[in-house]
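can u pls check wat happens w/ magnesium ion
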Amino acid sequence: MIGITILGSTGSIGVSTLDVISQHSETYSVVALTANHNVDRMYEQCLAFAPEYAVMVDADAADKLATKLTGSGYSDITVLSGIEGLEKVASLDKVEQVMAAIVGAAGLRPSLAAARSGKRVLLANKEALVLSGQIFIDEVKNHGAELLPIDSEHNAIFQCMPANYNGGLTKNGITKILLTASGGPFRTKSLNELHNVTPAQACAHPNWEMGRKISVDSATMMNKGLEVIEARWLFDASADDIQVVVHPQSVIHSMVQYNDGSVLAQLGNPDMRTPIAHAMSWPKRMASGVASLNLFEIARLDFEQPDFERFPCLRLSYEALRAGGTSTAILNAANEIAVEAFLNEKIAYTAIPEVIESTLSLVSSNEASDLECILADDAKARQVAEERVAKLSVH
Ligand code: NAD
Ligand code: MG
Protein backbone atom coordinates (compact mmCIF):
# COMPACT_ATOMS: atom_id res chain seq x y z
CA MET A 1 0.00 0.00 0.00
CA ILE A 2 1.16 3.54 -0.76
CA GLY A 3 0.55 5.80 2.25
CA ILE A 4 -0.64 9.30 1.42
CA THR A 5 -1.18 12.51 3.38
CA ILE A 6 -3.58 15.09 1.97
CA LEU A 7 -2.86 18.63 3.08
CA GLY A 8 -6.05 20.60 2.50
CA SER A 9 -8.33 17.55 2.15
CA THR A 10 -11.57 19.52 2.57
CA GLY A 11 -10.85 21.77 -0.41
CA SER A 12 -11.57 21.32 -4.08
CA ILE A 13 -8.27 19.53 -4.88
CA GLY A 14 -8.45 17.54 -1.63
CA VAL A 15 -11.91 16.21 -2.47
CA SER A 16 -10.85 15.29 -6.03
CA THR A 17 -7.81 13.48 -4.63
CA LEU A 18 -10.00 11.44 -2.27
CA ASP A 19 -12.24 10.60 -5.21
CA VAL A 20 -9.24 9.19 -7.13
CA ILE A 21 -8.05 7.29 -4.03
CA SER A 22 -11.50 5.75 -3.52
CA GLN A 23 -11.19 4.25 -7.02
CA HIS A 24 -7.85 2.65 -6.07
CA SER A 25 -8.30 1.68 -2.45
CA GLU A 26 -6.29 -1.51 -3.02
CA THR A 27 -3.17 0.59 -3.79
CA TYR A 28 -3.45 3.80 -1.74
CA SER A 29 -4.18 4.24 1.92
CA VAL A 30 -4.94 7.58 3.52
CA VAL A 31 -2.60 8.13 6.47
CA ALA A 32 -3.52 11.73 7.29
CA LEU A 33 -6.06 14.37 6.34
CA THR A 34 -5.74 18.07 7.17
CA ALA A 35 -7.98 21.13 7.05
CA ASN A 36 -8.19 24.64 8.40
CA HIS A 37 -11.54 24.73 10.24
CA ASN A 38 -14.23 22.82 8.34
CA VAL A 39 -15.04 20.26 11.07
CA ASP A 40 -18.14 18.79 9.44
CA ARG A 41 -16.46 17.92 6.16
CA MET A 42 -13.38 16.60 7.95
CA TYR A 43 -15.56 14.43 10.16
CA GLU A 44 -17.27 12.92 7.09
CA GLN A 45 -13.89 12.31 5.44
CA CYS A 46 -12.61 10.62 8.61
CA LEU A 47 -15.57 8.24 8.61
CA ALA A 48 -15.12 7.46 4.92
CA PHE A 49 -11.32 7.05 4.84
CA ALA A 50 -10.35 6.15 8.44
CA PRO A 51 -6.99 7.97 8.46
CA GLU A 52 -4.54 7.55 11.34
CA TYR A 53 -4.30 11.32 11.78
CA ALA A 54 -6.64 14.23 11.26
CA VAL A 55 -5.22 17.74 11.62
CA MET A 56 -7.32 20.86 12.12
CA VAL A 57 -5.09 23.93 12.05
CA ASP A 58 -7.53 25.74 14.28
CA ALA A 59 -7.27 24.42 17.88
CA ASP A 60 -10.98 24.86 18.68
CA ALA A 61 -11.89 23.02 15.51
CA ALA A 62 -9.50 20.22 16.50
CA ASP A 63 -11.23 19.90 19.90
CA LYS A 64 -14.64 19.76 18.23
CA LEU A 65 -13.48 17.13 15.78
CA ALA A 66 -11.91 14.98 18.52
CA THR A 67 -15.15 15.12 20.56
CA LYS A 68 -17.26 14.17 17.54
CA LEU A 69 -14.97 11.30 16.58
CA THR A 70 -14.76 9.89 20.10
CA GLY A 71 -18.54 10.21 20.43
CA SER A 72 -19.01 7.99 17.36
CA GLY A 73 -16.44 5.39 18.37
CA TYR A 74 -13.55 6.64 16.18
CA SER A 75 -11.16 7.34 19.04
CA ASP A 76 -8.27 5.61 17.20
CA ILE A 77 -7.91 8.62 14.87
CA THR A 78 -5.29 10.94 16.36
CA VAL A 79 -6.42 14.56 16.11
CA LEU A 80 -3.67 17.19 15.98
CA SER A 81 -3.72 20.95 15.51
CA GLY A 82 -1.52 23.83 14.40
CA ILE A 83 1.18 24.13 11.80
CA GLU A 84 3.28 21.61 13.77
CA GLY A 85 0.52 19.07 13.19
CA LEU A 86 0.65 19.77 9.46
CA GLU A 87 4.43 19.42 9.35
CA LYS A 88 4.29 16.21 11.34
CA VAL A 89 1.83 14.43 9.06
CA ALA A 90 3.72 15.64 5.97
CA SER A 91 6.86 13.88 7.26
CA LEU A 92 5.63 10.56 8.72
CA ASP A 93 7.74 7.54 7.78
CA LYS A 94 4.82 5.53 6.49
CA VAL A 95 3.79 8.34 4.13
CA GLU A 96 5.19 8.06 0.59
CA GLN A 97 3.16 10.76 -1.12
CA VAL A 98 1.97 14.13 0.10
CA MET A 99 -0.75 16.00 -1.75
CA ALA A 100 0.06 19.67 -1.11
CA ALA A 101 -3.36 21.26 -1.62
CA ILE A 102 -3.53 23.99 1.00
CA VAL A 103 -4.38 27.35 -0.56
CA GLY A 104 -1.96 30.26 -0.30
CA ALA A 105 1.28 30.91 1.56
CA ALA A 106 -0.09 28.86 4.49
CA GLY A 107 0.86 25.76 2.49
CA LEU A 108 4.55 26.61 2.30
CA ARG A 109 5.87 25.12 5.56
CA PRO A 110 4.06 21.78 5.37
CA SER A 111 4.88 21.40 1.65
CA LEU A 112 8.54 22.09 2.45
CA ALA A 113 8.38 19.57 5.30
CA ALA A 114 7.24 16.95 2.79
CA ALA A 115 10.13 17.83 0.46
CA ARG A 116 12.64 17.68 3.32
CA SER A 117 11.38 14.24 4.27
CA GLY A 118 12.04 12.96 0.74
CA LYS A 119 8.41 12.36 -0.17
CA ARG A 120 6.77 12.42 -3.56
CA VAL A 121 5.26 15.90 -3.36
CA LEU A 122 2.11 16.26 -5.44
CA LEU A 123 2.15 20.03 -5.71
CA ALA A 124 -1.13 21.89 -6.19
CA ASN A 125 -0.15 24.71 -3.80
CA LYS A 126 1.51 26.90 -6.45
CA GLU A 127 1.94 29.74 -3.94
CA ALA A 128 4.63 27.66 -2.15
CA LEU A 129 6.86 27.85 -5.25
CA VAL A 130 5.97 31.49 -5.91
CA LEU A 131 7.25 32.32 -2.44
CA SER A 132 10.25 30.11 -2.06
CA GLY A 133 11.19 28.95 -5.62
CA GLN A 134 14.90 28.16 -5.42
CA ILE A 135 14.76 27.04 -1.79
CA PHE A 136 11.94 24.61 -2.51
CA ILE A 137 13.68 23.16 -5.58
CA ASP A 138 16.95 22.80 -3.61
CA GLU A 139 15.20 21.00 -0.74
CA VAL A 140 13.62 18.57 -3.21
CA LYS A 141 17.05 17.81 -4.75
CA ASN A 142 18.94 17.65 -1.44
CA HIS A 143 16.51 15.22 0.15
CA GLY A 144 15.82 12.96 -2.82
CA ALA A 145 12.18 14.02 -2.95
CA GLU A 146 10.10 13.94 -6.14
CA LEU A 147 8.14 17.01 -7.23
CA LEU A 148 5.16 16.28 -9.45
CA PRO A 149 2.96 19.13 -10.63
CA ILE A 150 -0.80 18.91 -10.05
CA ASP A 151 -1.65 22.28 -11.55
CA SER A 152 -3.21 21.13 -14.83
CA GLU A 153 -0.97 23.31 -17.02
CA HIS A 154 2.25 22.24 -15.32
CA ASN A 155 1.17 18.64 -15.29
CA ALA A 156 0.55 18.97 -19.04
CA ILE A 157 3.99 20.54 -19.58
CA PHE A 158 5.57 17.77 -17.50
CA GLN A 159 3.87 15.21 -19.75
CA CYS A 160 5.16 16.99 -22.89
CA MET A 161 8.74 17.29 -21.63
CA PRO A 162 11.46 14.76 -22.52
CA ALA A 163 11.53 11.83 -20.07
CA ASN A 164 13.85 12.52 -17.10
CA TYR A 165 14.03 16.23 -17.93
CA ASN A 166 16.35 17.72 -15.37
CA GLY A 167 16.64 21.38 -16.37
CA GLY A 168 18.14 23.13 -19.41
CA LEU A 169 15.44 23.90 -21.98
CA THR A 170 17.89 24.70 -24.80
CA LYS A 171 19.99 21.57 -24.48
CA ASN A 172 16.77 19.59 -24.69
CA GLY A 173 15.74 21.34 -27.92
CA ILE A 174 12.91 23.24 -26.25
CA THR A 175 12.27 26.75 -27.57
CA LYS A 176 9.12 27.75 -25.64
CA ILE A 177 6.72 26.67 -22.97
CA LEU A 178 3.20 27.55 -24.10
CA LEU A 179 1.11 28.02 -20.97
CA THR A 180 -2.58 28.01 -21.80
CA ALA A 181 -5.12 30.18 -19.99
CA SER A 182 -8.90 30.06 -20.26
CA GLY A 183 -9.10 33.82 -19.75
CA GLY A 184 -11.60 33.25 -16.92
CA PRO A 185 -15.16 34.57 -16.68
CA PHE A 186 -14.24 38.14 -17.75
CA ARG A 187 -12.21 37.34 -20.86
CA THR A 188 -14.43 39.44 -23.12
CA LYS A 189 -15.48 42.15 -20.64
CA SER A 190 -14.24 45.71 -21.20
CA LEU A 191 -12.29 47.54 -18.48
CA ASN A 192 -15.41 49.65 -17.79
CA GLU A 193 -17.63 46.65 -17.19
CA LEU A 194 -15.16 45.23 -14.66
CA HIS A 195 -15.67 47.93 -12.02
CA ASN A 196 -18.84 46.49 -10.54
CA VAL A 197 -18.37 42.76 -10.82
CA THR A 198 -19.28 40.81 -7.68
CA PRO A 199 -17.46 37.95 -5.91
CA ALA A 200 -20.16 35.55 -7.15
CA GLN A 201 -19.53 36.59 -10.78
CA ALA A 202 -15.76 36.33 -10.31
CA CYS A 203 -16.10 32.83 -8.83
CA ALA A 204 -18.27 31.52 -11.68
CA HIS A 205 -15.50 30.05 -13.82
CA PRO A 206 -16.65 28.91 -17.26
CA ASN A 207 -14.70 25.60 -17.26
CA TRP A 208 -13.41 24.70 -13.81
CA GLU A 209 -14.91 24.38 -10.33
CA MET A 210 -12.36 25.51 -7.78
CA GLY A 211 -11.84 27.15 -4.37
CA ARG A 212 -12.82 30.81 -4.09
CA LYS A 213 -9.30 32.26 -3.97
CA ILE A 214 -8.06 30.54 -7.13
CA SER A 215 -11.37 31.38 -8.82
CA VAL A 216 -10.81 35.10 -8.26
CA ASP A 217 -7.18 34.64 -9.34
CA SER A 218 -8.46 33.09 -12.57
CA ALA A 219 -10.77 36.05 -13.16
CA THR A 220 -7.94 38.58 -12.71
CA MET A 221 -5.49 36.23 -14.49
CA MET A 222 -3.25 36.48 -11.42
CA ASN A 223 -3.60 32.71 -11.45
CA LYS A 224 -1.80 32.65 -14.79
CA GLY A 225 0.81 35.04 -13.45
CA LEU A 226 1.44 32.77 -10.47
CA GLU A 227 1.61 29.85 -12.90
CA VAL A 228 4.25 31.58 -15.03
CA ILE A 229 6.34 31.89 -11.86
CA GLU A 230 5.56 28.28 -10.91
CA ALA A 231 6.68 27.11 -14.39
CA ARG A 232 9.89 29.11 -14.07
CA TRP A 233 10.88 27.00 -11.06
CA LEU A 234 9.46 23.64 -12.06
CA PHE A 235 11.06 23.63 -15.50
CA ASP A 236 14.21 25.73 -15.04
CA ALA A 237 12.84 28.35 -17.45
CA SER A 238 13.10 32.14 -17.63
CA ALA A 239 10.23 34.62 -17.98
CA ASP A 240 11.06 34.91 -21.71
CA ASP A 241 10.76 31.15 -22.20
CA ILE A 242 7.12 31.14 -21.07
CA GLN A 243 4.38 32.36 -23.40
CA VAL A 244 0.83 32.64 -22.12
CA VAL A 245 -1.71 31.53 -24.75
CA VAL A 246 -5.37 32.31 -24.11
CA HIS A 247 -7.40 29.24 -25.06
CA PRO A 248 -11.02 29.66 -23.90
CA GLN A 249 -12.08 25.99 -24.19
CA SER A 250 -9.50 24.69 -21.64
CA VAL A 251 -9.06 21.49 -23.64
CA ILE A 252 -5.34 21.87 -24.30
CA HIS A 253 -3.82 22.14 -20.84
CA SER A 254 -0.47 23.47 -22.11
CA MET A 255 2.19 22.80 -24.75
CA VAL A 256 5.93 22.53 -25.27
CA GLN A 257 7.52 23.81 -28.48
CA TYR A 258 10.71 22.17 -29.82
CA ASN A 259 13.40 23.46 -32.18
CA ASP A 260 12.43 21.04 -34.96
CA GLY A 261 9.03 22.71 -35.33
CA SER A 262 7.14 20.21 -33.16
CA VAL A 263 4.65 21.39 -30.58
CA LEU A 264 3.55 18.74 -28.07
CA ALA A 265 0.27 19.27 -26.26
CA GLN A 266 -1.67 17.47 -23.57
CA LEU A 267 -5.44 17.50 -23.99
CA GLY A 268 -8.30 16.35 -21.80
CA ASN A 269 -11.58 17.32 -20.22
CA PRO A 270 -11.09 20.02 -17.59
CA ASP A 271 -11.17 17.79 -14.50
CA MET A 272 -8.38 17.88 -11.90
CA ARG A 273 -8.64 14.13 -11.33
CA THR A 274 -6.57 13.64 -14.51
CA PRO A 275 -3.41 15.43 -13.28
CA ILE A 276 -3.96 14.03 -9.77
CA ALA A 277 -4.10 10.42 -11.00
CA HIS A 278 -1.18 11.06 -13.36
CA ALA A 279 1.08 12.38 -10.62
CA MET A 280 0.10 9.72 -8.09
CA SER A 281 0.72 6.81 -10.45
CA TRP A 282 3.62 8.24 -12.50
CA PRO A 283 5.45 6.79 -14.38
CA LYS A 284 2.55 4.38 -14.75
CA ARG A 285 -1.01 5.38 -15.61
CA MET A 286 -4.23 4.64 -13.78
CA ALA A 287 -7.89 5.42 -14.33
CA SER A 288 -9.10 8.68 -12.82
CA GLY A 289 -12.83 8.54 -13.46
CA VAL A 290 -12.54 11.31 -16.07
CA ALA A 291 -14.35 10.61 -19.35
CA SER A 292 -12.18 10.68 -22.46
CA LEU A 293 -12.31 13.63 -24.74
CA ASN A 294 -14.96 13.80 -27.44
CA LEU A 295 -13.19 15.78 -30.17
CA PHE A 296 -16.25 15.78 -32.42
CA GLU A 297 -18.29 17.45 -29.72
CA ILE A 298 -15.55 20.03 -29.08
CA ALA A 299 -15.15 20.63 -32.84
CA ARG A 300 -12.92 23.69 -32.56
CA LEU A 301 -10.13 25.16 -30.45
CA ASP A 302 -9.38 28.90 -30.29
CA PHE A 303 -6.26 30.81 -29.31
CA GLU A 304 -5.69 34.49 -28.47
CA GLN A 305 -2.89 36.74 -27.28
CA PRO A 306 -3.14 37.71 -23.59
CA ASP A 307 -4.27 41.29 -22.94
CA PHE A 308 -1.92 42.86 -20.39
CA GLU A 309 -4.00 46.02 -20.16
CA ARG A 310 -7.27 44.42 -19.14
CA PHE A 311 -5.38 41.92 -16.96
CA PRO A 312 -2.73 44.00 -15.15
CA CYS A 313 -2.10 41.15 -12.66
CA LEU A 314 -0.48 39.18 -15.46
CA ARG A 315 1.84 42.09 -16.26
CA LEU A 316 2.67 42.56 -12.58
CA SER A 317 3.56 38.86 -12.26
CA TYR A 318 6.01 38.98 -15.18
CA GLU A 319 7.53 42.15 -13.69
CA ALA A 320 7.94 40.54 -10.27
CA LEU A 321 9.47 37.43 -11.79
CA ARG A 322 11.98 39.55 -13.76
CA ALA A 323 12.78 41.62 -10.66
CA GLY A 324 13.57 38.40 -8.77
CA GLY A 325 14.41 38.02 -5.07
CA THR A 326 11.43 38.36 -2.75
CA SER A 327 9.39 40.32 -5.35
CA THR A 328 7.24 37.31 -6.16
CA ALA A 329 6.58 36.72 -2.43
CA ILE A 330 5.51 40.38 -2.11
CA LEU A 331 3.28 40.02 -5.19
CA ASN A 332 1.69 36.88 -3.75
CA ALA A 333 1.13 38.33 -0.27
CA ALA A 334 -0.48 41.50 -1.65
CA ASN A 335 -2.68 39.40 -3.89
CA GLU A 336 -3.85 37.21 -1.00
CA ILE A 337 -4.84 40.29 1.01
CA ALA A 338 -6.53 41.97 -1.96
CA VAL A 339 -8.49 38.86 -2.97
CA GLU A 340 -9.69 38.29 0.59
CA ALA A 341 -10.80 41.94 0.79
CA PHE A 342 -12.64 41.63 -2.53
CA LEU A 343 -14.34 38.39 -1.43
CA ASN A 344 -15.45 40.17 1.76
CA GLU A 345 -16.77 43.04 -0.40
CA LYS A 346 -14.39 45.54 1.14
CA ILE A 347 -12.79 46.62 -2.15
CA ALA A 348 -13.87 46.67 -5.78
CA TYR A 349 -12.65 44.02 -8.19
CA THR A 350 -10.55 46.61 -10.05
CA ALA A 351 -8.81 47.57 -6.78
CA ILE A 352 -7.11 44.14 -6.66
CA PRO A 353 -4.30 45.05 -9.11
CA GLU A 354 -4.07 48.52 -7.54
CA VAL A 355 -3.35 47.01 -4.11
CA ILE A 356 -0.74 44.68 -5.61
CA GLU A 357 0.98 47.33 -7.71
CA SER A 358 1.25 49.82 -4.86
CA THR A 359 2.47 47.15 -2.44
CA LEU A 360 5.17 46.14 -4.92
CA SER A 361 6.30 49.74 -5.19
CA LEU A 362 6.25 50.36 -1.40
CA VAL A 363 7.94 47.18 -0.14
CA SER A 364 11.49 46.78 -1.30
CA SER A 365 12.53 43.39 -2.56
CA ASN A 366 15.46 41.54 -1.03
CA GLU A 367 17.51 38.53 -1.96
CA ALA A 368 15.47 35.38 -1.30
CA SER A 369 18.42 33.84 0.54
CA ASP A 370 16.51 31.96 3.24
CA LEU A 371 13.01 31.29 4.43
CA GLU A 372 13.20 33.93 7.17
CA CYS A 373 13.93 36.71 4.62
CA ILE A 374 11.06 35.55 2.46
CA LEU A 375 8.59 35.33 5.31
CA ALA A 376 9.68 38.73 6.63
CA ASP A 377 8.94 40.36 3.27
CA ASP A 378 5.70 38.39 3.02
CA ALA A 379 4.65 39.85 6.40
CA LYS A 380 5.68 43.39 5.41
CA ALA A 381 3.76 43.12 2.15
CA ARG A 382 0.63 41.91 3.98
CA GLN A 383 0.76 44.91 6.28
CA VAL A 384 1.23 47.42 3.45
CA ALA A 385 -1.49 45.74 1.39
CA GLU A 386 -3.90 45.93 4.36
CA GLU A 387 -3.22 49.67 4.56
CA ARG A 388 -3.95 50.05 0.86
CA VAL A 389 -7.15 48.04 1.27
CA ALA A 390 -8.26 50.37 4.10
CA LYS A 391 -7.66 53.39 1.82
CA LEU A 392 -9.50 51.86 -1.13
CA SER A 393 -12.30 50.39 0.97
CA VAL A 394 -15.77 50.96 -0.40
CA HIS A 395 -17.36 51.03 3.10
P1 NAD B 1 -9.88 25.36 -1.49
O1 NAD B 1 -10.10 26.71 -0.92
O2 NAD B 1 -11.02 24.63 -2.09
O3 NAD B 1 -9.24 24.41 -0.36
C1 NAD B 1 -8.17 24.83 0.43
C2 NAD B 1 -7.81 23.80 1.48
O4 NAD B 1 -6.75 24.36 2.27
C3 NAD B 1 -8.95 23.45 2.44
O5 NAD B 1 -8.85 22.10 2.81
C4 NAD B 1 -8.66 24.34 3.65
O6 NAD B 1 -9.14 23.78 4.86
C5 NAD B 1 -7.16 24.40 3.64
N1 NAD B 1 -6.65 25.65 4.22
C6 NAD B 1 -7.08 26.92 3.93
N2 NAD B 1 -6.39 27.82 4.65
C7 NAD B 1 -5.53 27.12 5.40
C8 NAD B 1 -4.53 27.49 6.37
N3 NAD B 1 -4.33 28.77 6.71
N4 NAD B 1 -3.80 26.52 6.94
C9 NAD B 1 -4.01 25.22 6.61
N5 NAD B 1 -4.93 24.80 5.72
C10 NAD B 1 -5.68 25.74 5.12
O7 NAD B 1 -8.69 25.51 -2.55
P2 NAD B 1 -8.40 24.62 -3.86
O8 NAD B 1 -9.15 25.16 -5.00
O9 NAD B 1 -8.51 23.18 -3.53
O10 NAD B 1 -6.87 24.99 -4.11
C11 NAD B 1 -5.82 24.47 -3.32
C12 NAD B 1 -4.49 24.79 -3.98
O11 NAD B 1 -4.44 24.11 -5.23
C13 NAD B 1 -4.31 26.26 -4.29
O12 NAD B 1 -2.96 26.60 -4.12
C14 NAD B 1 -4.67 26.37 -5.75
O13 NAD B 1 -4.01 27.43 -6.40
C15 NAD B 1 -4.20 25.03 -6.28
N6 NAD B 1 -4.92 24.58 -7.48
C16 NAD B 1 -6.26 24.35 -7.43
C17 NAD B 1 -6.93 23.94 -8.56
C18 NAD B 1 -8.40 23.64 -8.53
O14 NAD B 1 -8.95 23.19 -9.54
N7 NAD B 1 -9.09 23.83 -7.45
C19 NAD B 1 -6.24 23.77 -9.77
C20 NAD B 1 -4.87 24.01 -9.78
C21 NAD B 1 -4.21 24.41 -8.63
MG1 MG C 1 -3.81 25.85 -13.38
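Residues 151-153, 227 surround magnesium ion (ligand 2) (CB under 6 Å).
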